[in-house]
Amino acid sequence: MVKAKRPSGDDKSGLKVWLDGKFIDYKDAKVPILTHSLQYGSGIFEGLRAYETGKGTAIFRLKDHVERFIRTAKIYQMDLGHTREEIENAIIECVKRNELKSAYIRPFAFYNSDMIGLGTHGKGVSVFIAAVPFGAYFGKGVETGIRCKTSSWKRINSEILPVEAKASGNYINSLIAHIEATKSGFDEAIMLSGGGRIAEGTAENIFLYMDNMLLTPDYSADILIGVTRNSIIDIARASGIEVVEAELHKEELYIADEVFFTGTAAEVTPIVNIDGVTVGGGKPGPITKMLAQKYSSITHGEDNVFGNWLTYI
């Protein structure tokens, strides 16, 4: 097995990636500009993390992420051409070949045809997997908290696009909300669904802590069902915290004791200001910090309460 030169930071030049069953150099993974999924946003993807633990590198909730990847492909009637086991093994091998102690992992499936036309019938599907070095998505904000703006752009709903699919085209909705928020001086956007209900961030699920309960939007808010979201729900309940999935309205953001995002990239990120309104005491609250610490302990193999969530490689 040829081993890759371990990259650092944004340098991906030494990476080995998996494309259609073969490992190749990152620089050789190229597609034509007219590729269907680049032109029409018809790709699907996943995001996973691998963490350094005392027993070596471990991938967090590998099977759950691959299951969602396969469900997304089914929703879009995309034949991946690879079994669940082949994809899981390719993800594991990708981390191994790049000798990464920790990583962000991106499986991506796309229509590889460069023929002009919206239809997908007869167009081939390629599956790509990369594992890259990755730090905190919000930098120091994961410790100090971030500032968010409720977006003027509404979250898409299932009458428009399948929101439970992690599809490339869905994220144009997130992108424009993120641009609006950051150009207004905030770190991230919070998106609302119909009727002023809280949905999610641009790439994160959201939780509120108030009245001694942990609250999070339910499925009716057109959220993507996050693997990290479900993990935090399980961790909170195991810690004796009541968790309620419900319809939540915008004004509840301003009166919550604590608010935080969850996501594969974001992990557990406190929110300390929304639309200029200070959340709680303006710093990460005790429940947020406790859940973040427990999540970190589990992902790094220090807490075995949910040991089955880790796949050691």
What does this structure look like?
This protein folds into 2 domains: 16-132, Aminotransferase class 4, branched-chain amino acid transferase, N-terminal domain (D-amino Acid Aminotransferase, Chain A, domain 1), CATH 3.30.470; 141-299, D-amino Acid Aminotransferase, Chain A, domain 2. Helix 5 (171-183) links the parallel strand 8 (146-150) and strand 9. It has helices at 36-40, 62-75, 84-97, 141-144, 171-183, 227-238, 251-255, 286-299; strands at 16-19, 22-25, 44-45, 48-53, 56-60, 103-111, 125-132, 146-150, 188-192, 198-201, 205-210, 213-217, 242-246, 258-263, 267-274, 277-278, 310-312. The protein has 313 residues and is an alpha+beta fold. Helix content is 26%, strand content 28%.
Features:
globular; 17 strands; 313 residues; alpha+beta; 2 domains; 8 helices; D-amino Acid Aminotransferase, Chain A, domain 2; 8-stranded antiparallel β-sheet; D-amino Acid Aminotransferase, Chain A, domain 1
Number of strands: 17
CATH architecture of the largest domain: Alpha-Beta Barrel
The largest sheet is: 9 strands, mixed
Order of SSEs: EEHEEEHHEEHEHEEEEHEHEEEHE
Number of helices: 8
Uncertain parts: 1-8
In helices, the fraction of residues equals 25-40%
Distance between the termini: 16 Å
Number of domains: 2
- Mean pLDDT over the residues: 95
CATH superfamily of the largest domain: D-amino Acid Aminotransferase, subunit A, domain 2
**What is the CATH topology of the largest domain?**
D-amino Acid Aminotransferase, Chain A, domain 2
CATH C-level label of the largest domain = Alpha Beta
The helix/strand class is alpha+beta
- Strand proportion: 25-35%
